[in-house]
Amino acid sequence: MEKEKLEKQGIIGRKEVSAALRTSLPIMVTFVVLGIGYGILMEKHGFGPVWSLLSGILIFSGTVQFVSVSMLSGGSFIMAGVTALMVAARHIFFSISMIGRYREEGRRKWYLYYALCDETYAMLSRDENPPGVNRSGYRFLVTLFDQSAWVLGSFLGGWIGTLLSFNSTGIDFAMTALFTTVFIQQWIDSKCHIPAVLGLAATLVCRVLFGRDLFLIPAMVIILAVLTIMRRRIEAEVATENGN
Questions:
Q1: Where are the beta strands (DSSP E) in the chain?
Q2: Which residue has the higher pLDDT, 33 or 178?
C-alpha cells in the first residue's frame, strides 16, 4: 500500500507540467539571464562553457558561484571552499525546514533537497498547491525547471563569452538584485512579516558583531532558533491570512 501511495503521488501529467511552468516561468527567465551573466563572468576569468555547465549542475548556488569565480581564478581553492560553505550554509536550514513536507517523496526527496535553491524554497515553502495537481509531481517539476534554467543560462553565458569582448565589471551584482526582488515580492504577497523582519534584524546585528566574512552562519543559527520558538505564532498568522 505504501509503495502504491508513493507511486500515485509521483504522477506527472499535463496538469503538473502546466502548473509547474506557471510557477517557475518568472524564475526560469531570471535564472537564464543571471546564468548568462555568470557564464560570461566565468569565461572572462579563464573558465570555458563546460566549467559553467558543470558548476550549475554540481554546485547550483548562484551566490556561491558568483562569489567563488575570482577566488578560483586566483588559485585560492581553499578559501573558495570555505567561503562556499559559509555562504551556502543557509541551504542546510532550508532543507531542515522542508523535512516534514518531503517526508513521503520517496527517492525523489534527495533531489528535492539537493536542488533546493532560495527561489525554489520561496515557491514551495508556502504550502500552496494548485487545485487538481499532484503535489509530488508539481514539487519535482518546479525544482527541475528552476535548476535547468540556471544550467542552461550558465552554459549559454560561457559560450557567448567566447564570442564577446567587453568589461564584465558589475555582472556579479545581479544576484543581489535578484534576492532583493524576491524579498520584496514575498513581503508584498504575505501579511505575516515576522520572518522577514527577523531575517533583516539578525543579519544586521551579526554583520556588526562578526564582520563581513563571518556573519552568515551565526545569523542563520539565530534565525532558525527564533523561528522554531515562534513557529506556532507564525503558522497561526499564516492560517488566518489564508482564511483557514
A1: none
A2: 33
pLDDT band for 1, please (50, 70, 90 cuts): very low
187, three cell numbers: 513581503
Q: Is 100 strand, coil or helix?
A: helix
Distance of CA 154 to the CA centre of its chain: 15
Residue 191, C-beta contacts closer than 8 angstroms, at least 6 positions apart: 237, 241
Furthest-apart CA pair in the chain: how many Å?
60
Residue indicated by cell numbers 551566490: 63
3-class state of residue 28 by DSSP: helix
Q: Which helix (H) or strand (E) holds 157?
A: helix 135-161
Task: Please tell me which of 100-109, 140-149, 176-185 the model is most confident about, judged by mean pLDDT.
Answer: 140-149
User: First CA to last CA across the chain, in angstroms?
Assistant: 31
